[in-house]
Design a protein that fits this description.
The complex is a heterodimer of chains A (211) and B (472).
Chain A: H1 5-17, H2 19-29, H3 32-56, H4 71-95, H5 102-112, H6 114-126, H7 135-161, H8 165-210
Helix pairs in contact in A: 1-2, 2-7, 3-4, 3-5, 3-6, 4-5, 4-8, 5-7, 6-7
Chain B: H1 2-10, E1 23-25, E2 31-33, E3 38-44, E4 59-62, E5 68-72, E6 77-81, E7 87-91, E8 93-96, E9 99-102, E10 108-111, E11 117-121, E12 126-130, E13 136-141, E14 156-161, E15 167-171, E16 178-181, E17 187-191, H2 200-208, H3 211-216, E18 225-230, E19 236-240, E20 248-251, E21 282-287, E22 293-297, E23 302-306, E24 312-317, E25 329-335, E26 338-343, E27 348-354, H4 356-369, H5 373-386, H6 391-403, H7 407-416, H8 420-437, H9 439-471
Antiparallel strand pairs in B: 1-2, 3-27, 4-5, 5-6, 6-7, 8-9, 10-11, 11-12, 12-13, 14-15, 15-16, 16-17, 18-19, 19-20, 21-22, 22-23, 23-24, 25-26, 26-27
Helix pairs in contact in B: 4-5, 5-6, 6-7, 7-8
Classes of the chains: A mainly alpha (211), B alpha+beta (472).
């Protein structure tokens, strides 16, 4: 299939409304390179949305302290969970005879995030024109976006790995556990590195002050 | 990330543990500089009164007509001063059944509106009630009740009396709240007990511990109160020393906590503190007029004043050797616009006068409390001019602008004040106004857009039909 500019936005939109078709296409019919490109673009858009949201959301729903806004951190808050999910999912499904490759897992996860972007982006501007009672709509549509994303993740996982629904749910739950485990290992690693660094630094100081 | 946090906290203009005397907490809980609301003006010691110096004084009371009573525990006497801090008399004994009787390390003092004196005579395990001449009215000693243990020892520490002459006693080693005594001195009940607060981690350890280990651990007991005060309407304000959930409480007659906590953070003293320094330990509370109340933190020697809604107004004081700082502050009382702080170790009273900023702020709160909103908004504007960090003041301005139908400006001020409810109200009205003003062209714009959209769809369909026909 050729990548036309029209396809870039048509395919993700098609996928979120017809996830079974969409994910099937993703796994078996589409050009992997184009799809990967679209997936990366979705992630970039989501990052941009998050950054804009933190800065420009309406006062009534924006509880961020402007002093601590950090676009780099916002970026990390999007990328790290997605990567953690993909790695955890891939590690698990290789053991549980899933048929998905890592790139497929990554792409399906990114495509599942499209509703997040679609719902959140307009709300950055809409939230400027709402009153306190109307914030209910904001929180409601947020909830819808999350549910939609979870549903897409579910279908994506099922299609990519060719699992039964029950097994998909089990895998998703186990993935969450694996993510927590990974986070724990990372923290442990970082704290150990920090201790080593401070130990080396202390020795260095000792030497300098003695000399 | 930790690094970033450290860096940003170091860059704060005034940290809670830093050198700055007067500071304030912003909406986000950061310490920000603020002008001083009070200034130390005078120090009163035994020497300035021409009597022997105070020895470990532990409590103080100021009547509404600003007479000052100091409970000089170490000397077992009560020292009365007039409103200009001149000595009136000292009471060190009273006639009890024909004999001279004395206090033994009394800890608490309360003076009623009539001028009756109530003394928590701790080492004698009794409460002494004297009239304004110093004659004994009654003595409340060891209460007898089924609610109390057999081996209960009555050791009153702090004391208040309400208009119905009921006595509320804070006694040492009592975890069930304040002891309430009826007018004739009979113990009736406990009120306002603090709830037990359980640390989940500690609870888990306790579940796994053996009986022997458990006996070594600390018991889960409710926190004791550290002090109490009564406002004009008879509500008891109480402080607890531990940093529980709510270290300040306002108790109604049933002992239910009715303190308003509408401010940016619940009233609790310092919001930020270092691990070594520890949290605020609130040991006294004083209720002033217009529902404003101040609490004294013995840990850092600071005084925090809140208004009736629970907004922090100002902070002053500290531990140190300068005038206006304390060694071991134990009691806090307001005498009109002045604030008195009693120092136990130094045996002196520091008198604070309000600065211009403090006066304006207090007057603003007062006029708002009394419903004079225009005056209060003007005063709040003045206070905000002197202290741009006082976010609370902007809401006062916003409210006035809202009534003047300046909706956009009002919303802006509410936003400055982080007051979401007020902002929403002003914004809704502003939106309505805007819509009404521009209704015609907004509506026609929408209509035109809809028409254009429909046309585009029809044209497209036509095109597709013709091309399809062409293929055929």
């Amino acid at each position: 299939m050729q990548a036309s500019s029209k396809q870039l936005y048509q395919y993700p939109l098609h996928l979120i409304f017809h996830p079974f078709d969409g994910y099937w296409e993703l796994k078996y019919e589409r050009n992997q390179k184009t799809t990967l490109l679209i997936a990366l673009m979705i992630m970039v858009l989501l990052i941009v949305t998050k950054i804009l949201q933190a800065q420009y959301s309406g006062f009534l729903i924006n509880y961020n302290n402007p002093k601590y806004l950090n676009s780099l951190l916002e970026m990390v808050y999007v990328i790290v969970p997605v990567l953690f999910w993909c790695i955890a999912n891939w590690s698990l499904t290789t053991l549980m005879d899933g048929e998905g490759k890592f790139s497929e897992i990554f792409m399906s996860t990114c495509f599942a995030l499209v509703p997040m972007f679609l719902v959140h982006f307009p709300w950055i501007w809409l939230s400027l024109a709402i009153s306190e009672q109307e914030t209910a709509f904001y929180y409601f549509s947020n909830a819808i976006a999350v549910c939609w994303t979870i549903y897409l993740l579910f279908v994506g996982n099922m299609t990519v790995h060719q699992y039964t629904p029950a097994k998909t749910i089990l895998t998703m739950l186990l993935t969450l556990v694996a993510m927590a485990f990974m986070a724990f290992l990372c923290l442990l690693f970082f704290s150990l590195v920090q201790q080593i660094v401070s130990f080396v630094y202390t020795i260095y100081q000792e030497l300098v002050l003695r000399g | 990330m930790v690094c970033l946090l450290l860096f940003s906290s170091a860059a704060l203009p005034a940290s809670a543990d830093g050198e700055a005397d007067a500071y304030h907490y912003s909406y986000y809980g950061d310490a920000v500089p603020a002008p001083a609301a009070y200034e130390a003006s005078m120090i009163i010691t035994g020497r300035t009164l021409n009597i022997s110096s105070f020895k470990e004084p532990s409590d103080m009371h100021v009547t509404p007509d600003e007479r000052v009573y100091v409970l000089d525990s170490g000397n077992g006497r009560i020292v009365e001063l007039d409103r200009n801090f001149k000595l009136v008399r000292t009471i060190d004994s009273f006639k009890n059944a024909g004999k001279q009787d004395q206090f033994k390390n009394p800890q608490g003092l309360f003076v009623t509106e009539k001028g009756d004196l109530l003394v928590a005579d701790s080492e004698n395990h009794r409460v002494v009630h004297l009239d304004d001449k110093g004659q004994l009215v009654k003595i409340v000693s060891e209460p007898k009740s089924d609610l109390l243990n057999e081996d209960f020892q009555f050791k009153p520490i702090r004391i208040v009396m309400d208009k119905g002459e009921r006595i509320y006693v804070m006694a040492a080693g009592v975890f069930d709240g304040f002891m309430e005594f009826s007018a004739d001195g009979e113990f009736s009940s406990f009120i306002g007990a603090n709830r037990v607060q359980v640390d989940p981690v500690e609870y888990l350890w306790k579940r796994f511990a053996t009986r022997e280990q458990r006996s070594q651990m600390v018991m889960f007991t409710p926190t004791e109160f550290t002090n109490l005060d009564m406002d004009e309407e008879g509500f008891i304000y109480a402080t607890s020393g531990d940093r529980g959930k709510d270290p300040i409480k306002k108790l109604n007659a049933q002992g239910t906590d009715i303190l308003r906590r509408e401010g940016y953070a619940a009233p609790q003293g310092d919001l930020r503190y270092s691990t070594e320094g520890g949290a605020s330990r609130l040991i006294d509370v004083d209720v002033g007029d217009s529902d404003m109340y101040s609490v004294l933190d013995s840990n850092k020697g600071r005084i925090f004043t809140y208004n009736g809604d629970g907004y922090l107004l100002h902070i002053f004081g500290g531990i140190g050797n300068r005038t206006g700082m304390f060694n071991t502050p134990v009691a806090l009382e307001r005498a009109g616009d002045r604030m008195l702080v009693l120092d136990k170790a130094l045996g002196e009273i520091t008198v604070f006068e309000t600065t211009e900023y403090g006066r304006i702020l207090h007057d603003a709160v007062r006029s708002y409390y009394n419903g004079e909103e225009d005056q209060s908004s003007q005063l709040f504007a003045k206070a905000a001019e002197m202290n741009a960090n006082l976010e609370y003041a902007y809401a006062g301005i916003g409210k006035a602008l809202l009534r003047q139908k300046e909706y956009a400006e009002s919303a802006e001020y509410f936003k400055q004040s982080m007051e979401r409810k007020g902002y929403s109200k002003a914004f809704l009205l502003y939106r309505k106004e805007l819509m009404r003003e521009h209704f015609s062209w907004v509506m026609s714009g929408i209509f035109l857009a809809a028409a254009a959209f429909v046309t585009v769809i029809i044209v497209r369909r036509q095109k597709r039909r013709t091309t399809n026909a062409g293929i055929k």
